[in-house]
Amino acid sequence: MNTMRQLENTCGKLYMQKDIKGFCHLYSGQEACAVGIKAAMRTDDAVITSYRAHAWGYLMGISLHNLLAEVTGRKTGCCRGKGGSMHLFTKNFYGGHGIVGAQVPLGTGVVLGMMCKGQSNVCFILYGDGAANQGQAFEAFNMAMLWKLPSIFVCENNTYGMGTSAERSSADTDYYICNDTIFCVFLPLLFFQVDGMDVVSVREAARFAIEHALSGAGPIVLELLTYRYSGHSMSDPGESYRSSEEVKDVRATRDPIVLFREVIVSANLATPEELKVPVYADTITNVQFYNTKLRCDLFLIHSGGLDGVVVSICDYHAEGPGSNSLRGHSWLKAGLASRPLGA
Ligand SMILES: Cc1ncc(C[n+]2csc(CCOP(=O)(O)OP(=O)(O)O)c2C)c(N)n1
Ligand SMILES: [Mg+2]
Question: What's the CATH number where 228 sits?
Answer without folding.
Answer: 3.40.50.970
